[in-house]
Amino acid sequence: MRNTSVLPRRFPKIDVNPRYVVERDNAAQVIQHDLWPLAKIDPTKQKFPCCLVWTPLPVVSWLAPFVGHVAICREDGAIVDFSGDSMIRVGHLLYGDVARYYQMDRQQCCFGGYFGGHTCKQSYQHAQFGRAISWDDAVQLSARNFVHRTFNIFSCNGHSFAANCLNRLSYGGSMHWNMINVGALIMFKGQWVDGWSILRSFVPLIVVACYGYLVIGWACPVVLLSFYLLLFGWYVLVSYCFKNLESG
Predict the structure, then answer these.
(1) Which of 30, 58, 219, 239 has the most Cβ atoms closer than 10 angstroms to its Cβ?
(2) Please, is 24 exposed, middle or buried when counting C-beta atoms within 10 Å of its C-beta (0-12, 13-18, 19+)?
(3) Which among 54, 153, 63, 61 has a CA at the least distance from the CA of 96?
(4) Collapsing DSSP states into helix, strand and coil, what is residue 72?
(5) pLDDT digits 0-9 by tens, 26-61
(6) Of 126, 131, 147, whose CA–CA distance to 248 is shortest?
């Protein structure tokens, strides 16, 4: 007679409740999007949580006020600034106080390390580039990468650093952040810190333009316009045609 006590037992089939699946997925989504609340922006202490920040550059911004220096801020508001060869500053910008800022929306980030996995459409490209599990993680990973790079105002600069962070987050579902669209974002959507920030950004250009008009007449605006076109053309070439220069 066979001993059936040692035979493997067949467990009854368990039906999965669809309601449980929905609740589990909703819980994972809540965990993914339950972000720690940010502190208020405080320009007096140079605290700009999850912001892109901008300040004019000496000489260059006197001629072209749309050109400046960009940095990105951690969730606690501390500025993280790629401002020189193998140099990452934390706390303040090298070229002066913040004049303009734009606060990013963390809900538009793809944090690939959470339970829900990738929320962006280009999950493979995002993972290959280097994903981050939080905003601060993206800033830290980019800082580790750029601390070994050579700073160049025309190719590998603060805009490039901020773009690298946003690409690690696949911010807005995009992996194509570069100097051009980072600059455009803070230019068209950013906010001025105060009236003095506006003055120190545009008064030097007014002075230069007036002096140039007195010296060379109407040739001055022609020269400035030509300079703007050349500068903009160069940044477009670097951002879209020679990406290896921007990536360092």
Answers:
(1) 239
(2) exposed
(3) 54
(4) strand
(5) 433 444 446 788 999 999 999 999 999 999 999 999
(6) 147
What are 90's two structure tokens? Answer: 């934390």
Q: Which residue stretches of 82-178 are H helix?
A: 123-129, 135-146, 158-168
CA distances from 77 to 48, 92, 174 (A): 4, 11, 24
Give the Cα separation of 239 and 233 in Å (integer).
Answer: 10
Radius of gyration of the chain (CA): 25
Tens of pLDDT, residues 163-207:
999 999 999 988 899 999 999 999 999 999 999 999 999 999 999
| Of 152, 39, 158, residue with least CA distance to 88 | 158
